[in-house]
Write a structure and sequence with these properties.
The chain has about 260 residues and is mainly α. It has one domain. About 70% of the residues lie in helices and about 0% in strands. Helix 8 runs parallel beside helix 11. The longest helix has about 35 residues. It is globular, with a radius of gyration of 20 Å. The two termini are about 20 Å apart. The mean pLDDT is about 90.
Length: about 260
């Protein structure tokens, strides 16, 4: 039954308005950033261009972009009291689970493409046009960032692994917001809390001089030097724990409603 509901949700989400929205979430920011870094920077490796394209805009707005991908659709259903009629054809539990699964799939897909499309363009297409000049190192220190450890497996594998990492984090932030919305039914609080958590986490870790554990730097580690891979798991596990706690609260809420 839940698989049928998942298919329905995916079908409803695959309309032209949503496709336009997803395109807006994926394309403009890297394009604008690429146009801004064409001049004024010195690059010793092609991958540095990719890292620069994914700096500033995307790290700052990341949670908001992920939340926008799907969660607002659920707000409309709450406002129109649509959920009151859900139990006539499917249990509210399965309905919520289907929503969470589709939300996770879409947000992962959007976050993955936000990084992977610029990666493919910068690493494999742009060199054919020589838009960006790559300079010889001449003994200069070449900055190395976290996740470049995976370059030993090949450039493309690095791109897949890193894009998947961003996708998983995007999925968690989107799930964070949707779970809150299902629990407290307050759109403003639900949609802003994950972003506030993200910004406050970045601020606090910088204040304490632990930027290597900040939510932003462990997803987009371009502003700090390379760190051991285990460091990115610290804020990730905290975020995952928050999501799991919210999921447990939602499950209890749904079970209580049936009692």
């Amino acid at each position: 039954m839940i698989s049928h509901q998942i298919k329905l949700e995916l079908k409803k989400s695959a309309n032209w308005k949503q496709v336009v929205l997803w395109t807006i979430l994926i394309v403009p920011l890297p394009v604008i950033k690429f146009l801004m870094i064409d001049e004024g920077y010195v690059y010793y490796r092609q991958i540095e261009v990719f890292l620069r394209v994914n700096s500033d805009f995307l790290p700052l707005l990341f949670p908001l972009l992920m939340i926008t991908a799907y969660t607002p659709r659920f707000i409309g259903e709450q406002k129109n009291n649509f959920l009151v009629y859900v139990n006539s054809r499917i249990s509210l539990k399965n309905y919520n689970y289907a929503k969470l699964i589709v939300n996770g799939f879409i947000s992962f897909f959007i976050a993955f493409l936000c990084v992977f499309i610029p990666f493919v363009f910068v690493m494999y297409i742009e060199p054919n046009f020589n838009i960006i000049t790559i300079y010889p190192t001449n003994g200069n220190i070449v900055p190395v960032t976290t996740f470049e450890q995976f370059l030993t497996f090949g450039t493309f594998i690095y791109g897949l692994i890193y894009s998947s990492w961003v996708g998983i984090n995007g999925m968690l932030y989107a799930t964070f917001a949707l779970l809150l919305l299902m629990i407290i039914e307050n759109p403003l609080v639900s949609l802003t809390t994950p972003f506030i958590y993200y910004i406050f986490g970045n601020f606090l870790t910088q204040l304490l001089n632990y930027e290597k554990f900040s939510p932003g730097s462990t997803v987009f580690p371009f502003s700090i030097s390379q760190q051991p891979l285990w460091t990115v798991l610290v804020p990730f596990c905290i975020l995952l724990t928050i999501v799991l706690i919210l999921f447990y609260i939602l499950r209890r809420k749904v079970e209580t409603s049936y009692e």
